[in-house]
Amino acid sequence: MRAWLAALTIATWPVLAEAQGTAALVADTVYLQENDILVAEGDVQVSYEGTLLSASRITYDQSANTLAIEGPLTLTDEDGTILLADSAALEDELREGILTSARLVLNRQLQLAATEIARVDDRYTQLSNTVASSCDVCNDSDRPLWEIRARRVIYDEVEEQLYFDRAQFRIMGVPVAYIPRLRLPSANNERSTGLLSPRLVFNSDLGFGAKIPYFIALGPYADLTLTPYIASGTRTLEARYRQNFTFGAVNVAGAFSDDDIVTDDQRSYLFADAAFTLPRDLLLEIEIQNVSDRDYLGDYDYASVPLLRDRAKLSTAGRDGMFRAEVANYTPLRSDDIAIADQLPSVVADAYIERRADIGPGQLTFGLDASAIERESSADALGRDVAELGTFAEYRTRRTFASGLVLSNQARVTAGVYKVGDDSGFDDVARSSAAVSTELRLPLQKSGPGGSYHLLEPVIGVAWSESDDAVPNEDSNLVEFDEGNLLALSRFPGDDRIEQGVTANIGLGYTGRFEDAELGLTMGRVFRHDADADFFPGSGLDGTASDWLTSVSLDWASFDLGARALIDTGFDATKVEALAGYSGEGYGLSGTYLYLDAEPLENRPDDTHEISLAGNTRLGRHWTVSAGGRYDIDTDGIDQATFGLSYQTECIVIGLDASRTYYRNDDDEDPTSSITFAVELLGFGSDAVDESYRTQCRG
Fold first, then answer.
1. How far is CA 526 from the centre of its chain?
2. Which of 10, 88, 237, 383 is the most buried (most CB within 10 A)?
3. Residue 125 sits in the same domain as residue 169
4. Over the chain, what is the mean pLDDT?
5. Whether residue 29 is found in the same domain as residue 71
6. Does 434 share its domain with 569?
7. Is the pTM of this model over 0.90?
């Protein structure tokens, strides 16, 4: 142990005294015998380069080059390693030696007690008749929850590995396993090849089984984890590969299965993503997703996604502009989408470049955009393919008057050409649009004591826009009316649809900051001269007057609330979203509420009305319980339920997690259940122990 050698070498005080005074020796008495024997007695404290040695007496014989230390002695280094012993003797230039009745504590976690500890070759520490455990015991008669007994343990300080010879694993003092040779990472080891904690699992489709992960360190910045998953209904190998570079990172996950669900073929999946920084501040992102069949991810709880996406994206952004180019391929997984897969966009590509320049009192933004969508079907309209190339320019000004009134103006023009295939309803067309808007807002603020304030901000805006020739709508089918687009020129999410005519937008915002809370309120509405037929009834934007948009946010100590609602002219809510959470000492609770009116044109034939709850609490010092669920109010049934129970101390984590999912909208799907049981021994590897779980001794 480097710290051991460094600290004990301090005893060679006559030599170190000439070496820039980097060591310190404090004792009740320090004297020389026969001119070459240094003796320090009584509460001896020696410090050297972050290492501290405490002992009753130190004797250094310079002529024999030996060191004797009388204890009880304690040696602590800056890495958290602690060595305790009754006595110690070193020789051979202080590189080798023996400590008796010693105990080694690594990173203040794993403790190794031995009858004798020997120092070998300035690298290895050999412990004889050893007991290793990271569990605290309150008195000598208590047994640790778990321990490893071995005839011999060798600690390699360079590789940070522990090698056990004739190891016996015990639980509460009872032998449960014998391992002739065992290697484990020390508490100072951040990455080490070897087995990880196994997990027992149950799945209603796959039966009982076990997952036994094996971690392979491929260097300081790369690793591979292989996890055999053996159950009564499956033989699976899971894999995960990760690597970091100076210019990016790669993450790959996958699995290969031979199971009883699909008997005539093997099943597999592969998910990969990577990101790399390139010259000129470009960022390249790559994503690959592949699966053998649509049910595989759900059967094994690997992921819950409605579609697969293979994607490559190149982008950069700065103060004066941005650039983005992306191409993606989509594969649907939902049964309803699979039936019309050839009619859904399979390949989508787009590119966008934008520049900004300060001109006169405002800022000019201009750029180009291009996009293409391809479907596999060649059926008329259902297999429509579209390519678009466009340009735009926008000018904004902002002025604040002495009264605090803020005036903002905006003008925007666009032009583009569309090439349409497999749709007789559209010809190749060129389209242009123009829009102008002006907005007035008056922030009114009142300040209070302790930094509190009230800010009230009424806003009114008027806009006009016009566009010629209709084009296929590929990017603006789903419209979300929220605080972000209440005052926008157009509330469509894409460019294929543009709000037209004269609109008036009104809004009122309030922000209040108090001693331990912050409250935000927003209310707004959109009025039109003529109704826009491209807004569906369920969007809240149809007709000449939109629904009222209301939102509230509250951050109060440990409580958070965010809610948004659309309220029609009859004061009935058409959309409600709410999220709340509370976090206290030892417990937490969160919940969501969602209500959406039915809208067939948005692929929502029925009302959506559900509530989700999740919570966890500490039951005493070591136990934690959690539970959650999603409940469908309209159908009066549970969609999903989860439960978790864990026991944790400073030396072990035992976890039990269970879930059950109900497919009540699909009569052909039976409910599925899964249970996972895992045990992890703490003290190996570099993970820090949560001190709130540490065992406390009474008395």
1. 38
2. 88
3. yes
4. 88
5. yes
6. yes
7. no
Q: Is residue 414 domain-resident? A: no
CA 252 from chain center: how many Å?
16
Side-chain half-sphere CA neighbours of 75 within 13 A? 26
Place of tokens 């000018």: 395
Contact in structure between 9 and 2 (CB atoms under 8 Å): no
- The neighbour count for residue 28, using CB atoms within 10 Å, is 9
Backbone angles phi, psi at 638, to 5 degrees: -85, 130
Which of 189, 224, 253 lies at the terminal end of a domain, its last residue? Answer: 189
pLDDT in tens, 474-505: 988 889 999 989 999 899 998 899 999 999 99
- Residue 694 three-state SS: coil
- The verdict on residue 669 lying in a domain is no
- Torsions phi, psi for 443 (to 5 deg): -70, 130
Q: What are phi and psi of 143, to 5 degrees?
A: -100, 135
- Distance of alpha carbon 218 from alpha carbon 239, whole angstroms: 14
**Tens of pLDDT along 181-203?**
999 888 778 888 888 889 999 99
Position 526 in a domain = yes
Four-point Cα dihedral 204, 208, 210, 211, nearest 10: -10
Residue 40, domain CATH:
2.60.450.10
The whole domain housing 156 covers 95-189
> What is the rounded distance in angstroms from the CA atom of residue 11 to the CA atom of residue 332?
72
Q: What does DSSP assign to residue 605? A: -
What is the DSSP code string of 145-210?
Answer: SEEEEEEEEEEETTTTEEEEEEEEEEETTEEEEEEEEEEEE-TT-S---EE---EEEEETTTEEEE
- Asked if residue 575 and residue 440 are part of one domain, the reply reads yes
Residue 114 tokens read as 């031995």
Based on the domain organization, do 24 and 111 belong to the same domain? no
Q: Would residue 174 count as lying in a domain? A: yes
Where a domain ends, among 189, 218, 242? 189
Element of type H or E holding 69: strand 66-76
Check residue 688 and give its pLDDT: 65
Amino acid of residue 342: D
Cα–Cα distance for residue pair 321/325, rounded to 1 Å: 14
Are both 442 and 589 inside the same structural domain? yes
Residues 24 and 99 in one domain: no
49: left (phi over 0), alpha (psi -120 to 50) or beta: left
Quickly list DSSP for 380-427. Answer: TTTT-EEEEEEEEEEEEEEEE-TTS-EEEEEEEEEEEEEEEES-TT--
Structural domain total, the chain? 3
- Sign, CA torsion 377/380/384/388: positive
Clarify whether residues 502 and 550 are in a common domain: yes
Closest CA to 429 of 440, 421, 438: 421
DSSP-based three-state secondary structure for 65: coil
The encoded tokens of residue 150 equal: 């071995």
- Residue 121 three-state SS: coil
Return the structure tokens found at 122. Answer: 């300035």
